[in-house]
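Because showing beats explaining, we let one protein speak, sequence and backbone structure tokens together, and leave readers to judge.
___
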Amino acid sequence: MMTYFSFQLGKWMHACEVETPEDILANPDSIPYTKEVDDALTPAKAVLADLLRTPDRVPSAAVPAKEWIKTQKKRLSKALVPYVGSLSIVERAQVANWFEVHVSTDKKIRRNWLGLLPVAHAYTVFISSRLKAEPKHRHLADNVILNKAWEIQLTGLPSLWTDIDVDKECLERLEEKMFERSMRAGIAGHYQWGLDAGDHQNDWDPYRGTPDHWNLGDRDGSEGEMEVGDL
């Protein structure tokens, strides 16, 4: 029986195993914060800590996101604040990382701030720091800039071009073609990679970790298809 792919593969991580934006945002450890984030959020550290522990005591006038929650008639500690303006996945992850390192300091309480008021205000503060750097805003009072930042956060939309990894999506499609097990793939889809050429790098099994839906279940391979041909 002839096999189809006489190649040894170098080991790599499948594109489908790379963290998604949802994975990144759910894990504040994923992307370390930058100096820009630190410089922007450090002056607001006390307010952010109060929003985490005693949000009722923080004046609404100083926290636009809190005022928004009140207009929605929702609980301060439970209300989701879905607005992020045009901040990218990376920027939001960096803000979350700073928040966990300097404010919450405990991974066990992530549920108390991820997606909620404390980190929403951190986004507002970060956006306001960028507004302050613009010459046209330097004459404005801090509370005015903070409200402008909230308006941007409330109405802006994240850029799809910055949040979609086109290279990753293309690589995932290529890998699906390489490792799909189906009637369409035929014998070539029945674990043929490296069968004639020997083990892959570090004895890697390139089929391990691939999604279940790449096996369409419409073709049963035979033992004969797994016979090693002449090198």
In short: Confidence is low (pLDDT under 50) at residues 1-5. Residues 100 and 106 are 7 Å apart (CA to CA). Residues 31-163 form one domain.
